[in-house]
Design brief:
This protein is α+β, with helices and mostly antiparallel strands. Helix content is about 55%, strand content about 10%. A four-stranded mixed beta sheet has the order 2-1-3-4. The longest helix is centred in the first third of the chain and has 34 residues. About 15% of the residues are buried.
């Protein structure tokens, strides 16, 4: 009887060990996905619904039909978790730190324009 209980105990230990390994592998996959996050191609306007400077940029875009001149994707960092994670990557590419990065931020695929005045001035240069 003692031998059987010992075997069962070993099997249970082995099963627990295997499950703990699979759980560790799952955590690695989650971390790996996070580190593989990249800046998507194309132009992006990062905004926030509560940002008054963002509202000025959006009004300029509407009043001056900017979307007829260029295409970009608008991403709200307050409701779009991926945008919230991508924005610091864009900022790093442009030499910004998290302490001097904010919205509105326009990424044209190679360069950043931070703040309503810089973004509006960029849009004014479009043909």
């Amino acid at each position: 009887m003692k031998l059987t209980l010992l075997k069962i105990s070993r099997y249970i230990s082995l099963i627990v060990f295997v499950f703990s390994l699979s759980a560790c592998g799952s955590n690695q996959n989650v971390e790996q996905v996070k580190t593989e996050l990249t800046i998507p191609p194309g132009k992006i306007l990062f905004i926030s619904k509560t940002c008054s400077h963002c509202a000025l940029v959006k009004q300029y875009i509407s009043d001056n039909k900017v979307l007829a001149k260029t295409y970009f994707v608008e991403r709200d960092i307050t409701s779009d978790q991926e945008a919230y994670q991508i924005m610091p990557l864009v900022g790093q590419r442009c030499g910004f730190t998290e302490s001097n990065l904010g919205v509105p931020l326009f990424w044209d695929g190679t360069k950043c324009y931070l703040g309503d005045e810089n973004i509006i001035n960029y849009f004014k240069t479009l043909p």
